[in-house]
Every structure is written in C-alpha cells, then in structure tokens.
Design goal:
elongated, two-stranded antiparallel ribbon, 9 helices, 62% helix, two-stranded antiparallel sheet, mainly alpha
Length: 255
Amino acid sequence: MTSDNFYSAVREHLRGRNPQALADLLDLLDSGVDPEDLGDPAEYAEMVLDSDSAQPVSYGRVWDPANPSIFVRRVIGWGWDVNLAAVAVKLGWMRPDDLDGDVLSAVPERAMEVTRALPLAGAALTIAVSTAAAVRSDGRLPSGWDIAFRPNRFSGRFGALAPGIVISAGAAAWAARARDRGDQLARGVHASSLAFLGAGVSVLALRSTSLGNRPQPLAGIASLIVGPAAAGLAAGLIPVRAGLRAAWKEAGLHG
C-alpha cells in the first residue's frame, strides 16, 4: 500500500474526527515511514480515536488548530462558524501542532476550571443584564437591529430578552455535559462564544433603554463580535498554553 493510499484510508475511517492525528500521520509518511509499519488503516484509525487528542465530530471544528480554515461548517444549523484556533494560529498565539493528547493531559486543573467557568459566567451576565433591561424598560425592547446596530424591531420584554437568555443558559448547560478533557475544551470554546453572544444581545437591549433608537455601532461590534470571540479564545488558549508550559517543564524545557 502506498503512502497516499494509507493516508486516504485512515482519513476515510476517521470521517473528520481527530484532524491532529491526520496531520501527524502526514508528517510520519512524509518523513519516509513505511505504511506497512503502521499496520492496518482501520486499526490505526481506531487507535488514534481512542487517544485523548481525538476531537468531537462536530463541535470540535470550532477549536481545531490543525485546520487552517477560519470558516468551518456551522455546528448547529446552516452556514458557517469560526474556527477560533485557526485565528489564534494566524495571530501567532499558538502553533498548529500545539494541541495533542500529551498537552491535554498536562493541563493543570485550574486552567480547565477557567474553560468550564466561562460559559457559566456568560450565562450569569446575560441574566443579570437582562434583568436590568427589563426593569428599566417601558415594556418594549429592541429585538432586531440594522447594520449600524440601530433598533429596527421591537417586542415585549419576554420576546426581546428570552432568546439571549436561552442561548446563554443552554450553551452553559450543554458545556457542563462534557465527558473528557478534549470534550471539555471543544465544548467550552463553543459554549463560551455562544454564552457571551447572548450577553451581548442583552447589553444592547439595556443600552437602548437610555439611548432609544440611536445607533450603537461600537457597542454592537464589541458586544456581538469582539466579546464572544474573546471569550471563546480565552476558553481555548488558557488551557492549551498552561498545558504546554507544564509539558515543557516536565521535559526540562523552557517556553
């Protein structure tokens, strides 16, 4: 079996799971390793899926440093999500090969606690800001904005605030169901972005109680784009960087 055939067979068995394992396999084959020495493609794929570096099939796409694509198929519904790990790689904050099973197992528990806590923080912020918006409103709040983040549709308190609360609370509850560290990391990144997106909607609603129909371009960009992206990046980068430092220290290296 040629190297190309072996790689294609393993990729078919993985079906999008554990992209880091595919990248590692490609490096092995490019270095001259004989495919026959790696065994059967199906058994090889099963072996790497059993490792801690395996990414979840769908939501792992939003934190996949081995994939250079910034836009990936949406986890829920139609459209596209942002692969925040690819953004971090392009900004020089991590390398494509920084995330693997050794790094995950070396992540200190306190760093994983940050990833678990961020979705809960986003949900708590959403509820607090939504409560303030409901109290300060006259019964009507914006439920839609134009491109300049000027309110162009209004609803009652429940109709305007419920979507953000549901998104944030649902994301936090979903993240809490994570099984292992790889699952916690992938869910934490996606859920943190969603939870702070819900908070951003609530922030704009609260600001409208004093600004009325005035546009909020800077607040809109900060609340709906920068904030969710920063939360997702923090949920992914903090444990990865902590795991790298721990792995380097264990190996007697400095990073």
